[in-house]
Design brief:
The complex is a heterodimer of chains A (about 180) and B (about 90). Chain A is mainly α. Chain A has 2 domains: about 10-90, no CATH class; about 100-180, Orthogonal Bundle (Arc Repressor Mutant, subunit A). Chain A is built from 7 helices and no strands. In chain A, helix 1 (about 10-35) crosses helix 2, helix 2 (about 40-60) packs across helix 3 (about 70-90) and helix 5 (about 125-135) crosses helix 7. Chain A is globular. Chain B has one domain (about 5-85). The longest helix of chain B has about 35 residues, at about 35-70. Classes of the chains: A mainly alpha (about 180), B mainly alpha (about 90). The interface of A and B includes residues 27, 43, 55, 118 and 160 of A.
């Protein structure tokens, strides 16, 4: 059974891991996409989506590789390509009577605004929460990376940040709703 | 840890289904006693969704930076050429 990739805990360690994965797996992905009639940009987009999926599965330990990581990544790529192909087929030709999807995008601006606000005003908290919940780093590693005095203060900070983000979302969402209405 | 932070910890345990049995019992009792708790669960789930969205966007940017490095830096010229030849 192959080991899961170790992505490390810092952007520099992740960069090394992604360069290694690109060199190992992108050539076979490019050959597959080219054979299926796709171009360089298709290969790039689908491979990057596959890397995000692979990273998320690796750090959450929700996958046990029965094969090597190149084959696993190629498997994700094939799945994504078939999905993309099916979605393209489903798209009906547009005529004027079909252009009634303005309402679908109404919720989007408030989410985007909120994300923009959290990414700027609350960046430090978002980074801490990312380290805990998305990168699934061990708490002692997070303590070291963010310079906390101990594991306990890092843990308290995690919950303070969750509270701050939750309250921000609550306040801002209600304000945006008022604005839309 | 102050009460509101303990509540956040319990809600996390509830969302991720990882509260130990005694905390799960306590949380069930709080759900009955605190009518605002169901709303707090919803907002906390939204916060997690935003963290997920923020994080995957940041990861995607790191991957894009790697791509730019591999396809623009002379050190990786042979790799770039090998890939471009596949699409000729």
């Amino acid at each position: 059974m192959a080991q899961l990739n170790d992505f490390g805990s810092t952007p520099i360690e992740r960069e090394k891991a992604f360069i290694a994965l690109y060199k190992k797996a992108f050539p076979s992905v490019a050959k597959y996409i080219s054979k299926m009639g796709g171009d360089f940009d298709d290969a790039k987009d689908i491979f990057q989506d596959a890397l995000v999926i692979y990273y998320e599965k690796s750090v959450s330990a929700s996958v046990v590789l029965q094969t090597n990581e190149q084959a696993y990544l190629l498997g994700i790529v094939k799945h994504l390509w078939v999905k993309k192909f099916r979605e393209n087929i489903k798209q009906c030709p547009l005529d004027d009577s079909n252009l009634d999807f303005a309402n679908e995008d109404e919720a989007q601006p408030s989410t985007n605004k909120l994300m923009h606000y959290l990414a700027s005003a609350g960046q430090k908290c978002m980074e801490i929460l990312k380290a805990f919940y998305y990168d699934n780093l061990p708490v002692n590693k997070i303590t070291e990376l963010f310079g906390y005095s101990g594991v306990r203060s890092a843990t308290v900070q995690k919950y303070k940040c969750m509270e701050k983000v939750r309250e921000t979302i609550k306040e801002r969402s209600l304000a945006y709703e008022d604005f839309v209405e | 840890m102050r009460t509101s932070l303990n509540e956040i910890k319990l809600i996390d345990g509830y969302i991720f289904n990882c509260n130990p049995p005694e905390d799960a019992l306590l949380f069930d009792a709080l759900l009955i006693l605190n009518p605002e708790l169901p709303d707090q669960i919803i907002w906390q789930k939204r916060a997690h969704a935003m963290v997920q969205q923020y994080s995957s966007k940041k990861l995607r940017a790191e991957i894009e930076a790697v791509h730019q490095q591999l396809f623009n830096q002379p050190a990786h010229q042979s790799f770039k050429q090998m890939i471009l030849n596949i699409f000729r």
